[in-house]
Amino acid sequence: MAEDQTALRVVLLGPPGAGKGTQARLLAEDFHLLHLSTGDILREEVAKETALGKEAKGYMDKGELVPDSLIVAMIEERIGEGKQGFLLDGFPRTVGQAEALERALQRRSLSLNACLLFEIDDEEVVMRLSGRRVCSKNPSHIYHLQFDPPKRPEVCDQDGAPLRQREDDREETIRRRLEVYHQQTEPLISFYEERGILRRYNASRSVEELHNLIRADLAALRLEGELAAGA
Ligand code: AP5
Predict the structure, then answer these.
(1) Number of structural domains, the chain?
(2) What CATH number corresponds to the domain at position 174?
(3) Is 83 among the domain residues?
(4) Which stretches does DSSP call E strand in the chain?
(5) Which of 26, 44, 75, 92 suits a disulfide with 98, CB 3.0-4.6 Å?
(6) Is residue 230 included in any domain, yes or no?
(7) Cα–Cα distance measured from residue 150 to residue 153, given in angstroms and rounded to the nearest whole number
(8) Are 41 and 228 spatial neighbours (Cβ–Cβ below 8 Å)?
């Protein structure tokens, strides 16, 4: 398969609570991209009590990473589905996962266009995640008690379902997730820097400001691809 230069294939990298999921949802809509969140896929497997979900739950509740072998297969089978490209949110998270992704794309004669790095202080992460509430019916409806409160307390604006706090959003688990990020995921910054596709963003900006910045950058990237393809 020849590389489609007009498609956007993008990785969102950053600590838990940096706002990757919030931005991924907005950008997927802007550019008609497939949004693949490994966290959301795993939580669905946990809710359905599948074999994968049962295995993953123990790791997730403690704030540890689920083993690469389970995650890589889960993503590989989905990346072909986005015709106009994809946004990977929460994957890769280890150098092993990044190498496996690179091999999977190479087999399809594809490559990534960009890795967007969300930079934010640990203490701001703790504040964001301890105030996060998600819809109990559709966990992609995300709120924050202070920064993005629902209109009615503890009720989802979009479907009226009660809001809940994620299991792993307790302070002790948030701090463990941050440690895991610094140890196992941060090495990906130099991995993607070496490949010349890393773009850094100050993720403590407001949702709207950050969205405008990234949207403009991705629009420019897509245009470059279209010009290169002579579209
Ligand atoms: P996952 O679900 O991927 O969690 P995470 O990376 O820890 O990311 P979060 O969803 O917590 O944060 P986010 O950056 O998306 O922030 P959000 O937009 O929600 O993973 C969970 C677990 O699954 C892992 O711990 C691991 O066990 C397992 N797992 C997943 N992927 C794996 C992999 N590849 N390998 C191995 N294991 C894996 O925003 C957070 C809050 O802040 C919200 O309340 C939001 O409203 C608010 N907010 C967002 N943006 C702003 C802003 N600009 N200003 C103010 N508030 C904001």
Answers:
(1) 1
(2) 3.40.50.300
(3) yes
(4) 8-13, 34-37, 85-89, 114-119, 132-135, 142-144, 163-164, 198-202
(5) 92
(6) no
(7) 6
(8) no
Would the CB of 16 count as within 6 Å of ligand 1? yes
Domain ranges, residue 196: 8-223
Nearest to 210 by CA among 218, 219, 202: 202
Q: What is the pLDDT of residues 67-109, one digit of tens each?
A: 999 999 889 888 877 778 999 999 999 999 999 999 999 998 8
> Which residue from 22, 60, 134, 183 has its CB within 8 A of the most atoms of ligand 1, so it is best to mutate?
22
Over the stretch 125-174, which tens digit does the pLDDT of each residue have? 999 999 999 999 988 899 999 989 999 999 999 999 999 999 899 999 99
Q: Which residues are catalytic?
A: 20, 93, 132, 166, 177
